[in-house]
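Re: that backbone. C-alpha cells:
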C-alpha cells in the first residue's frame, strides 16, 4: 500500500535490488505478456514475451520456452 500501485512497487523494488548490488533484475508479467530487464548504467528494457531477451549472457524468448514445454502461452493469462 505504501508504494501506490504495482508499477511503483516494481520500480522501487528494482532500484533497491540494483543499489544493493544485484547485477540484473528480471520481471516476467503474465497478464500483459511483458518482460522487464533492468541493470545499472543501462536503460531498463520492457519487451514482449516473443522478443529475444539476454539474461546473464543467455539469449532466449519466454514464449518459445513455454511452447517448447508443451504449454499454450495464452493459457497463462491471469484474470482474462
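Recovered sequence:
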Amino acid at each position: 500500500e505504501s508504494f501506490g500501485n504495482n508499477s511503483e512497487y516494481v520500480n522501487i523494488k528494482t532500484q533497491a535490488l540494483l543499489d544493493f548490488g544485484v547485477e540484473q533484475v528480471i520481471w516476467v508479467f503474465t497478464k500483459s505478456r511483458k518482460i522487464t530487464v533492468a541493470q545499472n548504467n543501462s536503460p531498463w528494457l520492457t519487451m514482449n514475451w516473443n522478443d529475444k531477451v539476454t539474461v546473464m549472457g543467455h539469449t532466449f524468448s519466454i514464449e518459445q520456452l513455454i511452447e517448447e514445454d508443451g504449454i499454450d502461452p495464452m493459457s497463462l493469462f491471469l484474470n482474462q
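The radius of gyration is 14 Å. The mean pLDDT is 86.
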